[in-house]
Write a structure and sequence with these properties.
The chain has 402 residues and is α/β, with parallel strands linked by helices. It folds into two domains: 20-58 and 97-210, Rossmann fold; 64-95 and 216-401, Rossmann fold. It has helices spanning 32-47, 49-63, 73-79, 97-110, 124-136, 146-151, 153-161, 176-189, 207-215, 217-230, 246-252, 281-284, 322-330, 340-354, 360-367, 392-401; strands spanning 18-19, 22-23, 69-71, 82-87, 115-120, 139-145, 165-169, 194-196, 237-241, 262-272, 277-279, 286-290, 293-297, 333-339, 379-384. Strands 3, 4, 9, 10, 11, 14 and 15 form a seven-stranded mixed sheet that branches. It is globular, with a radius of gyration of 19 Å. It starts with 17 loop residues before the first strand and ends with a helix. The chain binds pyridoxal-5'-phosphate (PLP). Residues 95, 97, 122, 124-125, 200, 241-248, 314-315, 359, 361-362, 385-386 line the site of pyridoxal-5'-phosphate (PLP). Pyridoxal-5'-phosphate is lined by residues 95, 97, 122, 124-125, 200, 241-248, 314-315, 359, 361-362, 385-386.
Length: 402
């Protein structure tokens, strides 16, 4: 079934790197050559036949794609609708992040870069980056907030075992935002030989579009798999958690211009949207510039970035990618949020109903199922962005406490 992509509003990036009012490239002068080189070359490079061949080969035989689209019968019985889980948790390294790092390492090679720098929150992007650096024999430095180094210890060990150097970010709330600042600073100081692999649809143009394209394999597969299982390519709902928004962008991508598909993005409410300890960006934020692009971010009256909080390190970020700011502003996607407590409960529930231990991040998308009021014939796809192995410390503590 071919649907018209010519709708009134476009959700694709324009020539200047904007999604409506959001996007662009706000970078210091030192980075202009790098960012401009990327802007000029990325589309041509990633559409080259040799690139696509290598990218597709690795996604299939290294990552294990296509990931299954699993009909969750007991979860569906509980919440109504026909709920499918897109199993990104089964990707090599345990989350969707590796789809993007494979694309970017192939790009870095073609740009002649010898070293890689990255930021990480939960450690999933750091692990995915360290993995492809080992694969391609490139030097890898990963910045990670000091708080996250403590709460995601298994991933720190994995990165080190893979040969990456993990450097602690010790400013601010010592989490993802601060790690991103440090990684950007490192790139500014080493622009010649280093490529920065950003882990989400954030950063200066062309990163948001480039990362969304690499992650769009998720919705490409969903379309085919729904056709096989439901006899149609389009679900009624696609739901995903949003930190920076890369797993959501990938799951939404091929449905952006199909208005019948309702897009639901779930942010981290932390201890509660109004508690002062939250990362619910669209509920609390205003337009501003963060990490090289204009977007919506949590800030004070005078524009200071507000320190975010979430139990899940991967969503503990005060902004969202510009594509999501645009989806929010235009109403194309609905933005909800879930609290830490709701998320932990949803994680335990999925584990007991389906035998799948989800990442805390992914559990945000599960935590709002009870609010959706699906009708029985609704086809719902929840993007299960990652597995819960890295969160066992948190889950063990919850079991001990209860
Ligand atoms: C990093 C991460 C996220 C959040 O990042 P997005 O760019 O918003 O997708 C979500 N889930 C998992 C499992 C992650 O590792």
């Amino acid at each position: 079934m071919i649907e018209s992509r010519l709708t009134e509003k476009s959700f694709e990036v324009d020539q200047r790197g904007y999604y409506g009012n959001y996007g662009g490239a706000f970078v210091p002068e030192m980075l202009h050559p790098n960012v401009e080189e990327l802007q000029q070359k990325y589309l041509a490079l990633i559409s080259e036949e040799s690139f696509q061949k290598q990218f597709r080969y690795l996604l299939k035989n290294y990552v294990g794609r296509p990931t299954p689209l699993y009909y969750a019968e007991r979860l569906s019985a509980k919440y109504g609708g026909r709920i499918y889980l897109k199993r990104e948790d089964l990707c090599h390294t345990g989350a969707h992040k590796v789809n993007n790092t494979i694309g970017q390492i192939l790009l870095a090679q073609r740009l002649g870069k010898k070293k890689i720098v990255a930021e990480t929150g939960a450690g999933q992007h750091g692990v995915a980056t360290a993995t492809v650096c080992a694969l391609m024999n490139l030097e890898c430095i990963v910045y990670m907030g000091e708080v996250d180094i403590q709460r995601q210890a298994p991933n720190v060990a994995r990165m080190k075992m893979l040969g990456a150097e993990v450097r602690a970010a010790t400013c601010g709330s010592k989490t993802l935002k601060d790690a991103t600042n440090e990684a950007m600073r490192h790139w500014i100081n080493n622009p010649e030989d280093t490529h920065y692999i950003i882990g989400s649809v954030v950063g200066p143009h062309p990163y948001p579009d480039m990362v969304a394209r690499f992650q769009s394999v998720i919705s490409e597969e969903i379309r085919q798999q729904l056709m096989e299982q439901e006899g149609r390519e389009t679900p009624d709902y696609v739901m995903a958690c949003v930190g920076g928004g890369s797993n959501a962008a990938g799951a939404f991508y091929h449905y952006l211009h199909t208005p019948s598909v309702k897009l639901v993005a779930v942010e981290a409410a932390g201890l509660g949207v109004d508690s002062g300890h939250s990362a619910a960006t669209t509920a609390l934020g205003k337009p501003g510039v963060l990490h090289g692009s204009k977007t919506i971010l949590m800030q004070t009256e005078d524009g200071q970035v507000v320190e975010p909080y979430s139990i899940s390190a991967g969503l503990d970020y005060p902004g969202i990618g510009p594509i999501h700011a645009h989806l929010f502003e235009t109403g194309r996607a609905t933005f909800l949020s879930a609290t830490d407590d709701e998320v932990v409960e949803a994680a335990f529930e999925l584990t007991r109903l389906e035998g799948i231990i989800p990442a805390l991040e992914s559990s945000h998308a599960l935590a709002v199922l009870g609010r959706m009021n699906f009708s029985p014939e609704d086809v719902v796809v929840v993007n299960l962005s990652g597995r819960g192995d890295k969160d066992m410390g948190t889950y063990m503590k919850k079991m001990a406490d209860s």
